[in-house]
Amino acid sequence: MKELEERIRRDGTVKTGDVLKVDAFLNHQCDVRLFDHMGQEWARHFAGKTITKILTIEASGIGIACCAARHFGDVPVVFAKKAQSINLDGDQYTTTVYSFTKRKEFPVIVSKKYLDADDHVLLIDDFLANGKALHGLIELCHAAGASVEGIGIAVEKGFQGGGDKLRAQGYDVDSLSIVESMNPETGEITFRD
After folding, report:
1. Is 104 assigned to a binding site?
2. In the chain, where the domains are located
3. Which of 31, 58, 102, 112 is most buried by its number of CB atoms within 10 A?
4. 24 is in an annotated binding site
């Protein structure tokens, strides 16, 4: 998606340790118009697939997923919580994932009343690096008996291989921008065609 790539080039910052900072428009301050255009792209890509729920992980994927949901007939958005709270009651699906940016493991939790075997799920997230978060969401879907219909990603760091592994496992991964390389010294970012 050229619009997203141009925005990453203009407002993104490459940091050491393979970190791409896009907080000006994607995961701290949100450009809702851009999110809407992203949702349109995913709706085009996944047209013809039955989507009954969109699943993401808090917090950065929530805004993107909510904007995307409007293009799938206003399906519900469910987000996996990263911590147990008193508001999480009843039976739950739980797994643990490793966060590349936070450099730690955390639980991901979804209430069983919001995900079940009748669901056809589209996973949405802001970033895909090694794929650990998405594998956690897939694990939750499998525990519920739900079908994973596809995966929509805003920014995939192609050089980290997570997307390629998911595609090799048979998942339909639609990344709107795939970063091939980043240089923290020059700030240069190259994208896969």
Report:
1. no
2. 2-191
3. 31
4. no
